[in-house]
Amino acid sequence: MNSTSGTIGRWQGAGLMATTLLGTGVFILPQMTVKMAGHGALLAWALLTLAIIPITVVFAQLGAQFPHAAGPAFFVEKAFGRLLGRAVGLSFLLIVPIGAPAAIMMTFQFFQAMVPITGWGQLACELMVLLVLLGLNLRGIQVSAKAQFTLTLCIVVVVVLMFGSGVGHAAQFQRPEAAQNTNGVLQAMGIAFWSFLGVEAMTHLTADFRNPAKDFIPAMMIGTLLVGTIYLACTWLLLLVQSDAPLAMMGAFDTLFGGHGVQVIGVLGIASGLATTNVYAASVARLLSSFSEQGITPRWFAPRNQFQVPVRALVMMLSLMALVLLANFLTDTRLDQLISWANGVFVIIYLLSMLAAVRLLSKRYRPWAVLSAVMCLILGVALASAMFYAMVLMLVLLPLLWLQLKLRRPTLPPMAAS
């Protein structure tokens, strides 16, 4: 593939990473995990953060040593061949149009708290979000990277203020008994895994960094550690400050500061949700363009504009997201079902990427890769039946791609490094 012109620095990359991971879940997922596991939610978030650290280290090393817009698909192909690599790439390509609309639907929970809207009006607003994302991406990811770094700082400031206020007034709150649902810890980890989806998406944007070898790994680590800390702080706050509000973080903000939780948390929740969807739209468009250059998908999606943005691929993926939003609206598909499907597919992608790292990285990083693979297996167990969709998807893709390779092998080169 053609290399892109790098424009992202270390701190912009950290902001992009952190905002992508915080995304739609920063003010929602802690509430869901508390309902599942009680005080065990703190343990769930701590264990998940520890599990994600080695995975982040391995992805960062893979992205720095093998920069490519195809990301995990390229890593797996380089380690295990074109068939499995292209299956990983297409599975990512097919799940993002489902996962991204789920992120938009979560975002509109904040919007509804500020401006009640339902039915066709909500669908129209969700579709307008996709048009906004198209405009943001036309001039390249560096534009949103700068804005998302500022957004990350705002989220961190709000959470720090709430945490500080909670610590300062902890004695005023009547805390319930420290009930802990041990069986719910794994379940909480399974749903919380959604919060860390985005680690692999950053590897698609490696070439957009000015100095990938120097800045990419620190950016990913800073972003991941910051996000884990924020989720732990938010979970502790919800256990400390009880609220009956539909979105508990808004109620906690009102309790601690005497109001304006809807406005502050609502605006940040909407902005972070849009940021998450924006990064996925950018990364999956680059993946589709890369596949087009390799002849896996139609070459019509390959061209890029003067800012190295694959516009046709971007429009195609946003259009698929629009169709999914429409289908969800017409069939009334549950949000948690979409999240479970996406989580299952990403566990497969992460697992295969970690196994690829065992073969690709030096001996220094192989223990990290093995540990990460074990963590992925544990997350797969936590997701339980949600893994069924991911396995069926791979079983469908593998024979189709095998047939394509067999029929077109002389004309299909392996993915070239960027």
Task: Give an overview in words.
The protein has 418 residues and is an all-alpha fold. The protein is 75% helix and 0% strand. The chain has 16 helices and no strands. The chain is globular and about 70 Å long.
At a glance:
With 418 residues, this protein is mainly alpha-helical.
Measured by DSSP, the beta-strand proportion falls in under 5%
Helix and strand content put the structural class at mainly alpha
DSSP helical segment count: 16
Rg of Cα set: 21 Å
The global form is globular
N-to-C series of helices and strands: HHHHHHHHHHHHHHHH
Number of separate strands:
0
* Gap from first CA to last CA: 6 Å
Fraction of helical residues: over 70%
For the residues shown, what is the average pLDDT? Answer: 81
The low-pLDDT segments are none
Largest sheet: none
